[in-house]
Amino acid sequence: MTESGANEGQKRRAAESAVAAVEDGTVVGLGTGSTAAAAIRALGRRVADGLDVRGVPTSHAARRVARDAGVPLTTLADATPDVAIDGADQVADGDLLKGGGAAHTREKVVDTAADRFLVVVDASKRVDVLDAPVPLEVLADAAPVVEDRVGDLGGTPELRAAERKDGPVVTDNGNLVVDADLGRIDDPEALAASLSALPGVVEHGLFVGVAYEIHVGTDEGVEVLEP
Length: 227
Ligand code: 5RP
Prior knowledge:
Mean pLDDT: 97
Strand order of the largest sheet: 2-1-3-6-12-13
Shape: globular
CATH class of the largest domain: Alpha Beta
Radius of gyration: 17 Å
Bound molecules: ribulose-5-phosphate
């Protein structure tokens, strides 16, 4: 989970903008993905300067970045996040699509447990209407059934394949991921309810009405959206 690649400067600016809002003595949810990793590293720099925080990681990957960055860690069992900082794959009207890193189940738990959820994205993530495939974390045994149900909803399912491993992606929770291409998502709330109702779906990647602020990094600076 590195910060290299396209839009690196935009991601870093968005990350630093959100991290500037973190207050001393607080608990911070630590998101997954390259932009969230930039935020964890920025938080680590503030910790080195004396900031007292504890982080709740949303994945094995986030935990590792936090350890390398020197951010002290805790768990949801011991602390409730005051703020969470996490990335997104698409942002439209304050709603999000997440799960590009297959971490959306724990991300949703931590991000929505926080008093304030700050989203950090580069400008390419802003769209008029969400339309990317929706990641579904599913019980392994349920994957064929869930794929059929996605078809019933008019979508096209694809079991996410692993890279550098034969077979499917296995999540941090031991489940599989079905990416459900459902075209334009004109009513994210209704689709979220339909997907949550599917037996075998542990969690989907639609985050509806949960963002407090969205920090969008641009080439010039940062735009902060307040949904
Ligand atoms: C992981 C996520 C990530 O936040 C999302 O994929 C964005 O990642 P990046 O900042 O690398 O574009 O939802 O499950």
